[in-house]
Amino acid sequence: MTAGGAGAGAGPRAVGGALPDRAWWVALAGLPGMGPARLRALREALAPEEAWRVVASGRAHLVPAVAAASGGRAGEVAARWARAAADLDVGERWRAHAHLGVSLLGEPGHPARVADDPEPPVVLFSDGDRGALAGPTVAVVGTRRCTRAGAELAVELGLACARAGVRVVSGLAVGIDAAAHRGALAAGEGAAPPVAVVGTGLDVVYPARSRSLWEAVAASGVVLSEHPLGTGPARWRFPARNRLVAALADAVVVVESPRTGGSMYTVDEALRRDRPVLAVPGPVRSAASSGTNWLLSQGAAVATGPEDVLAALGVAPEPTAGGPVLDPRPPPTGDGRRVLRALGWAPAGLDTLARRTGLGLGPLAVALDRLESDGWVHRDAGQIERRGRP
Amino acid sequence: MLATVPSATILGVEGRPVTVEVHVGQGLPSFTVVGLPDASCREARDRARAAVLCSGLTWPTRKVTVNLAPSSERKIGSGLDLAIAVAVLAATDQVPAEAVADLACIGELGLDGAVRPVAGTVALVDAVPGSTVVVAAPSAAEARLVGRHRVRAVAHLSELVLALRGEEPWPDPPAPAPPPPEPPPPDLADVRGQPAARQALEIAAAGAHHLLLVGSPGAGKTMLARRLPGLLPPLAPSEALAVTRIHSAAGVPVPGGGVVVRPPFRAPHHSSTTVSLVGGGTAALRPGELSLATGGVLFLDELGEFGPSVVDALRQPLEEGVVRVARARAAVTLPARFLLVAATNPCPCGEATEAGACRCSDAARARYRRRLSGPVLDRFDLRVEVHRPEPAALLATAGGQPSAVVAERVAAARRVAAGRGVRANAEIPADRLDQAAPLAGGATRMLEAALRQGRLTARGLARVRRVARTIADLDGAPPDSALGAEPVALAMTLRADVSSALEAVA
Questions:
Q1: If you ran DSSP here, which 8-state letter would residue B169 be given?
Q2: How far is B394 from chain A (nearest CA, A)?
Q3: Which backbone phi and psi does A224 adopt, to 5 degrees?
Q4: Which residues of A touch B449 (CB under 8 A)?
Q5: Residue A388 in contact with partner chain B when CB distance is under 8 A
Q6: How far apart are CA B74 and CA B313, in angstroms?
Q7: Exposed, middle or buried: residue B363 (CB in 10 Å: 0-12, 13-18, 19+)?
Q8: Cis ω on the peptide bond leading into residue A207 (within 30° of 0)?
Q9: Which residues of B touch A378 (CB under 8 A)?
Q10: Across the interface, do A288 and B497 touch by the CB < 8 Å criterion?
Q11: Is pLDDT at A12 greater than 70 in this prediction?
Q12: Per-residue b/e over B20-52, b at no fewer than 16 CB within 10 Å?
């Protein structure tokens, strides 16, 4: 049974009365080009079933709020919605979401942080335990193309925050996002569960190589989305996702980011919501740290490690048992020590190291091989980076 | 009534002997060419006839049949024109039959009787039997390279006829003015800084190790690659003849003296087709860029922009040193033993060598990566990331070592390699590595650790040993000395796993 007769205003007749309000909003949220703002406009103007009937009949652009949210192309958008709605069975679509958590704006069960948000999602889907959302939360975000040092720090932040009972929320992108979640997951039993917000439907894993991480987060924490199943990745959905990351967090930490990019969007959203923003300082020549350094110059708080982040949240760090962990790596000697000192914490090429140390390429290669073998440095293509941990 | 003149046609880089038989007999005046001539060969009919008439000779008003033997092989090109004309003249007694006995002719005719050079003179002359060969004047130098024949150079059909009749001496056209000497290859002294890339270049030249340069635009990849030919030793005489033969067959102008002595440097554009690189294309199966680079350097700038099928076509020649081109009518083996130097950006925008600086979409990076990854990437012994030189190095007044100094070390290393029975260390067979490149204790432990930690593969091991041997040879180590830690570590360092430059750190 389809809603083919919707044009006549009939809707899905047989089950129409039996469907909960949420079902209509789930169906509406999945229409092409239906962003959070347009959905909110519909929600504020109309009752659920009525909204569906108006959209299915192609008259959505006649609702003033929707027209305002759609700009000059409201008629075109309304026609597309009507075409998509004609092929949609609202009841079937609703039943497909039965295994997920679905909450509706204005109903109990919608997470408090997003319900009170200036741009709240109308529907929110969740895979995992929604209990993970209560408690102090920090967003750890950054560029997908991070340095290894940046990724290592993100792991460290994720781990320490989770251990201290702070939920780590991030976007499940590759790079810093993924590293932060890996750290949070590594905290293990009893630590705060990880929270992810994605910009696709909960059945569309993007990027595909994040699947195992995605499943691990859903298993021990929760993955959230404001898009129904089957929604693929689209450029405009990621900034919208970042607004939810900012909304869910008590503070936002940017580990590495260029001057423009998704992380900067998260920062803007956090500032609009009066959430504190912390940034990790980086080498002045590193493109991956140009954004964070700029944030610091603009007055963001400095995050040099988990202590700074926890202090900003007013959370006491979990005391580590037995003092500092012993580094199992054999201490570098001779040329190795020289090379490590010349390397510092910014990635460098072979030429740069040769110039800084004054070593010939042969002895330098021997020293690097030893350092890499012992876990002090990591070589990626021609770039050599110091590793913080083995 | 019947005359035969030997000549030759070309397939790939090999000449094939052809006997031109002409019969002039009773019948309606006609002129037919049989024996699988191709289009340009069939046109010989009209050229030969016009040339004979314009030279003040007579064309028989009888039935003229030309047979190109062996008739099973396809005859290609215009090089048989002269032989056809001479055979017709001999068959009609316009030149004495005994004069053309044992005389091979190679050349194209103009309608006015001018004799013009044809591509592949070296191979063609090498293919013809007999003791005397007639060629166009500009081809004389190439024809003499073969060294088996008395070479007669003529500029015009009438000159040839007068000489054959004994009325005039054989013309002795002055050797064409030697072309201006080739500009010397660019010098390595111009390169400032970049010690790692310079070292890789020297090792590549000494050991004939294929080299991949990865770096941002403006880092100097092309500048470095263009300096490689200046480091290579000049071609040995036997090699020079083989290379000249290829260049002659492809119709590429051969430098002064008629012999290619400098290692060639071929840099096809990334829009090149597979056929233009591999060869084939025309019925003559003309050698492509891979063959033209034989004995020298094939430089593929912007490797990531070459078509995937073009890059894949490199695999077999890199492995075997020859290209086998087969077409429905013929199959040839073209030499293709070159030093491959490729340069590429790490991603389409070129900035991915630095974390966070790349502006490409993930899809664009993945596409680039697919093109650069896998089997072809594996065949580079040296993979070096090139960075923009530091300002201090650019402004330094002292340049690097000049090419001449480096070339001397390279030549010495090549002599050491020759002592092992190979042209260069890259050609040391795997089963002789233990003998040619034994490992000292420190080097063995280092390689063991690298293999255990997955930093080195079994295939990579053999390549690292060959490169390490070259490094040791360049350092002046005794030819059979065990390889220490230093050359082995440097060989591994200069074989960076560049494929990961394209992968975001996850």
A1: P
A2: 13
A3: -115, 150
A4: 369, 373
A5: no
A6: 27
A7: exposed
A8: yes
A9: none
A10: no
A11: no
A12: bbbbbeeeeeebebebbbeebbeebbebbbbbb
Contact between residue A286 and residue A383 where contact means Cβ atoms under 8 Å apart: no
DSSP bridge pairs for B32: B65
Q: Residues 244 to 283 of B: which have CB under 8 A from any A CB?
A: none
Classify the phi-psi angles of B351: left when phi > 0, otherwise alpha if psi is within -120 to 50, otherwise beta.
alpha
The two beta strands, A195-197 and B103-105, are unpaired
Output the tens digit of pLDDT for each of chain B's 506 residues: 899 999 999 888 889 999 999 999 999 999 999 888 888 778 888 999 999 999 999 999 999 999 998 888 888 888 999 999 999 999 999 999 888 888 999 999 999 999 999 988 999 999 998 889 999 988 888 888 888 889 999 999 999 999 999 998 888 777 666 666 677 788 888 888 888 999 999 999 999 999 999 888 888 888 999 999 889 998 888 888 889 989 988 888 776 667 788 899 999 999 988 888 888 877 778 899 999 999 999 999 988 888 888 888 888 888 888 898 888 777 888 999 999 999 988 878 777 666 667 777 777 777 777 777 677 788 899 999 888 877 777 777 666 788 899 999 999 999 999 999 898 999 999 899 999 999 999 999 999 999 998 888 888 899 999 999 999 999 998 988 999 999 999 999 998 876 554 443 32
Position A2 scores a pLDDT of 41
Provide the angle, in degrees to the nearest 10, between the axes of the packed helices A361-374 and B441-452.
50
CB pairs under 8 A between A and B: 136
Chain B positions touching A379 (Cβ under 8 A) are: 496-497
User: Given CB atoms, is A379 within the 8 Å cutoff of chain B?
Assistant: yes
Task: Identify the pLDDT of residue B373.
Answer: 65
Q: What is the pLDDT of residue A390?
A: 62
The whole-angstrom distance between residue A365's C-alpha and the CA centroid of its chain comes to 39
Cβ–Cβ of A145/B355 closer than 8 Å? yes
Q: Extract the tokens encoding A312.
A: 């900003």
Residue B115 neighbours by CB distance under 10 Å: 29
User: Residue A39 above 50 pLDDT?
Assistant: yes
Bond before A317 cis per omega within 30 degrees? no
Separation of alpha carbons B197 and B223, rounded Å = 11
Residue B177: per-residue pLDDT: 67
Alpha carbon separation from A284 to A280, B43, B279 (Å, rounded)? 12, 72, 51
Give the chain A residue whose CA is nearest to the CA of B351: A287
Q: Are A221 and A193 in contact (CB under 8 A)?
A: yes
Contact B506, A180 (CB under 8 A): no
Closest CB from B358, B471, B505 relative to A148: B505
**Six token digits for residue B280:** 């084939």
In angstroms, the CA B204 to CA B381 distance is: 9
pLDDT for res B8: 93
Q: CA quadruple B72, B78, B79, B84: dihedral positive or negative?
A: positive
Give pLDDT, residue B502.
Answer: 42
Per the CB < 8 A criterion, the answer to whether A165 and A315 are in contact is: yes
For A181, the closest chain B residue by CA position comes to B506
How close does chain A come to B142, measured CA to CA in Å?
A: 46
Q: Do A209 and B358 touch (CB under 8 A)?
A: no
Residues of B within 8 A of A283 (CB-CB) are none
Domains in chain A, start-ordered, CATH in brackets?
8-97 (no CATH), 113-313 (3.40.50.450), 334-386 (1.10.10.10)
Three-state DSSP class for residue A82: helix
| CB contact (8 A) between residue A288 and residue B194 | no
Option in A288, A366, A381 nearest B500 (CB): A381
CA distance B99 to A78: 95
